[in-house]
Amino acid sequence: MSPQNGIHGAARPAKPPPRRRIGALLRFPVGVLLVSWEYMWRVTAFHRSETDGDHGDLPPLLPHELVDDLTQALRDGAGPMFHRRFSVRIEGAVMGPEELMEAVAADLNRPAPSTVAVFHKTRGADGPARVGDEYRVQMPGPWDGPVRVLHRDSVSLQLGTLRGHLEAGQIRFSARRDGGAIHFQVEAWSRAGNRWADILYSRLRVTKEIQFNMWVHFVLGVAALAGGRAQGGINISTRRIPAELCRNTDRWGRSSVAAESG
């Protein structure tokens, strides 16, 4: 199967024209400033923690049937991996977990901050996200983030990165009951997609903070979508995993280190 065809057997859309790429580059500082301004003046409390991680923080295995030449697996990236969780307890929600995740999957742009990311479906039928669908996440910089839907059930949605993404890894959105409230979480397993991105991501921390701001806004957007409010602020945990653990994985994400230790 050629890199241009992927699992669906049809040619990929053409790359964005130079004019749009230049426009994206010009939007980069504007988007960062807008999101940073909102972040600085937001009254929501943030509870952040950063610790060292281990092979137990590696992402779920990629489904065999959804891995092809377009897949940008964890081992394809550069630098350390960051296992991050952004979670919020939503009080007063008018939706249950299933209804909320159905709304999120129906239109990922509803909770997403438009100054940082816009989701364009490039593969799959119109309508909600389905397994095998692909999106181009337009971001405020000289890059776009292609992703593929790896899993979907009534209370979760999982995406994986494709070749050309600024990051290599996976992300999962999930909702569950928490007493009389809804617990919503964005869980990301990601490392820089290449050495240049590693400089921006883990060394200068530019894109790492952009990711932080994006998912903070996303979980707050989900709370609003649910018709409730974020109770007790947002919890953000980050675990840093050494690059060698990522290099010791195969194309599906199986870790030789975990196998030896288990």
Task: Record the SSE blueprint.
Elements: H1 18-41, E1 46-52, E2 78-91, H2 97-106, E3 118-123, E4 134-138, E5 144-153, E6 156-161, E7 167-178, E8 181-192, H3 195-203, H4 206-225, E9 229-241, H5 243-247, H6 256-261
Parallel strand pairs: 1-9
Antiparallel strand pairs: 2-8, 2-9, 3-4, 4-5, 5-6, 6-7, 7-8
The total strand number stands at 9
- CATH architecture designation: 2-Layer Sandwich
Task: Describe the main β-sheet briefly.
Answer: 9 strands, mixed
How many structural domains can be distinguished in the coordinates?
1
Order of strands, main sheet, comes to 1-9-2-8-7-6-5-4-3
Stretches where pLDDT falls below 50 for ≥5 residues?
20-28
Helical coverage, percent range: 25-40%
Sketch the topology as an H/E string, one letter per element.
HEEHEEEEEEHHEHH
